[in-house]
Structure of L-ascorbate metabolism protein UlaG, beta-lactamase superfamily:
Amino acid sequence: MDTVEITRLSKYSWFEIKYHGRIIHFDPGYAGYFENQKISEKEFEQKADLVLISHFHKDHLQPEALKRITGPETKIIASLNCADRLEKGAVLVKPGDVIEIGAGVMVHAVDAYNTPEGHSTKKFHHRGECVGYVLDLDGMRIYFAGDTDFIPEMRKIADVDIAFLPVGGTFTMDMGEAACAVAAIRPRFAIPMHQLQAELDDFKKESGIRPETEIITLKTGERKLLCGKK
């Protein structure tokens, strides 16, 4: 079976994806002391082929975390506001940029921001400064929202297999808004992230019964195999 392996590496937005021999990391960061004591160091022995970073906040980008997962051949793509925290060689992007990385891999940087009407209570993410990503990976499409409220641009994102959506409601949309995002995007799988104090299982209740979308909840250190293609 054509499967994708997803591992959660922090309670914020750090995820590892393995698919067709490639290793991709999203937002390798955390706040406070390195929290992943339950994760074996063997998890970091295989270095990433690609790292995608949505913005510079420490819960999304930590130099120590980046060193654990990168090697000489790792490609790093990050938002423009990460420039001061990355070494030379990283590709810096803004919403609308498209980067092709070899055969079968295309990275689309998309909008991620807080809105006045959004349910986030701390509006730290301004339009144009941070990004989300749509990753086309060997026929599979992944949407990683970054830190954002539910925004109009999400309605244009289509044919998504896996969507990573923040649900915490302080710096990002809350579960109600994230459920609206699920309804708009209609992914095959939706994975809540950046939940802060929220209970992940509550997201299933907020999203309701949607036959086209399966809600997958992962705790730090948990791994899940999903069917990669439609």
